[in-house]
């Protein structure tokens, strides 16, 4: 069974930084696309950043220049470095991967979510 374990969320002051991690279980043999989404209370889940298998990245306009998505293929881990955080970045952050399992299946998987709160 594929599991994604997220970590790194928490409370930070405006202007601060956090680094989110999303580690995929050993049942993953390769990751294709990866992404981070976020959902604020009462809002829809929005795409924050994506990274392709080739390393190409894309960002929502609201986070360009402040957030950086990256991946470590050897560790099956995806990261989101968040700098210059603003109160409007407060949300639950979810990682997503499209991946192939060691059994040969291909699927889409979500993390459990990690809370990021930006407040003074």
Notes on the protein architecture:
Helices cover 0% and strands 57% of the residues. It contains no helices and eleven strands. The protein has strands at 4-7, 10-12, 18-24, 28-39, 46-51, 57-59, 67-72, 77-82, 91-101, 106-110, 114-118. Strands 2, 4, 5, 6, 9, 10 and 11 form a seven-stranded mixed beta sheet that branches. The protein has a four-stranded antiparallel beta sheet with strand order 1-3-8-7, with no helix packed on it. Strand 7 (67-72) and strand 8 form a beta hairpin. The protein is elongated. The N and C termini lie far apart (40 Å).
> Oligomer, anyone?
single chain
Shape: elongated
The fraction of residues assigned to DSSP E strands is: over 45%
- Contiguous helical run count: 0
| Terminal CA distance | 40 Å
- Find the structural class using helix and strand composition: mainly beta
Number of strand segments: 11
Overall residue-averaged pLDDT value: 95
Which consecutive residue ranges, at least 5 long each, have pLDDT under 50? none
Main β-sheet description:
7 strands, mixed
Q: What is the percent of helical residues?
A: under 10%
- Using only CA atoms, what is the Rg? 14 Å
- What is the H-and-E element order? EEEEEEEEEEE
């Amino acid at each position: 069974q594929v599991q994604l374990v997220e970590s790194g969320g928490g409370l930070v002051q405006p202007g601060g930084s956090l680094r989110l991690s999303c580690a995929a279980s050993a049942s993953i043999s390769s990751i294709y696309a990866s992404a981070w989404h976020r959902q604020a209370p009462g809002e829809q889940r929005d795409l924050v950043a994506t990274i392709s298998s080739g390393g190409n990245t894309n960002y929502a306009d609201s986070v360009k220049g402040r957030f950086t998505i990256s991946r470590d293929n050897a560790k099956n881990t995806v990261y989101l470095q968040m700098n210059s955080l603003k109160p409007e970045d407060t949300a639950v952050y979810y990682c997503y991967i499209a991946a192939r399992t060691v059994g040969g299946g291909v699927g889409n998987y979500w993390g459990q979510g990690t809370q990021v709160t930006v407040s003074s």
